[in-house]
Amino acid sequence: MSYRCLIVDDERPALSLLTAYIAKLPQLELVQSCESGTDALHVLQSTPIDILFLDIQMPDLTGLELLQTLPRTPQVVMTTAYRDYAVEGFALNVTDYLVKPFSFDRFVQAVNRAIEQHGLVQQSGRPPESGEAEAQVAGDHFFVRTGHRIKKVRYQEVHYVESMREYVRIHAENKRYMVHQTMSSMEKRLSMYGFIRVHRSFLVNLEYLDSLQGNRIFIGETEIPIGGNYKKALFDRIELL
User: Fold this and answer.
1) Helix axes 104-124, 12-23, angle to 10 degrees
2) Which element (helix H / strand E) includes 197?
3) Burial letters for 110-132: b for 16+ Cβ neighbours within 10 Å, e otherwise?
4) Distance CA 88, CA 65 (A)
5) Tell me, what's the pLDDT at 19?
6) Of residues 60, 68, 64, the one with CA closest to residue 78
């Protein structure tokens, strides 16, 4: 049996090493390698993957954030230079955790464990979980489905929402959530709670708007662009406050 693999790592040496290791094992088939989490999302949405080799520290979308977006994950082998993420990684039900640099023998151990877990999942006959992340409203908060969990998010804790293609990233106080939902649906849901669209990729909570300068908004140290199609509505809204 062949096991389809995906590598996600923004470091070229790590990509090359994993590619070489996979090539040594005839039971493994490398489907693709990606240098960002967002590129990996598209592969995972369209292509069945059995084993995911995933780095943690990546720009744009971390490995842990990527896992939280997936309604059903393949066997995940995390690869990182940071031991501190091990507990959080295993909390997301990863199969194994490789600390860079790792040997071929250690790689084989992780692969064998992933193959064993894959077989157990196949035997269990569990139906696929829904890929549609949902949000539900209740009082001063709403619920979002991120991966296998449903999380409670208070409106007043959300600073802004950022579009990530088919997903949105909710930036709250000391927390971030990746949700499989459109920006338009989030705008419709949050507009009655003091949020306004300022760019095709950004929805902001006016409570946290610190200042404006030119075509930019500042929320703390975060700089957010103002889109030309949204500027008038934003200025009109501010004048009413």
Assistant:
1) 70
2) strand 195-199
3) bbeebbebbeeeeeeeeeeeeee
4) 11
5) 97
6) 64
pLDDT score for 137: 44
Categorise residue 164: left if φ over 0, alpha if ψ from -120 to 50, beta otherwise.
beta
- What is the number of other CB atoms lying within 10 angstroms of the CB of residue 46? 7
Which residues, in sequence order, are CB contacts of 20 under 8 Å at separation 6+? Answer: none
The secondary structure of residue 48, as a DSSP letter, is -
pLDDT value of position 230: 92
- The sign of the torsion formed by the CA atoms of 83, 71, 114, 29 equals negative
pLDDT of residue 93: 64
Beta bridge partners of 138: 141
Distances (CA, A) of 198 to 17, 28, 184, 226, 229: 43, 46, 12, 5, 8
In this prediction, residue 21 carries a pLDDT of 97
Q: Which of 155, 171, 154 is CA-nearest to residue 163?
A: 171
The rounded Cα 115 to chain-centroid distance in angstroms is 24
Q: What are the C-alpha distances in Å from 152 to residues 75, 126, 175, 204? A: 27, 27, 12, 19
Weakly modelled stretches of the chain, pLDDT under 50: 86-91, 125-138, 240-241
Structure tokens belonging to residue 71: 């309604």
Give me the half-sphere count of Cα atoms (radius 13 Å) on the Cβ side of residue 224.
30
- For 234, residues 6+ apart whose C-beta sits below 8 A from its C-beta are 196, 198, 226
Q: Which pLDDT belongs to residue 185?
A: 83
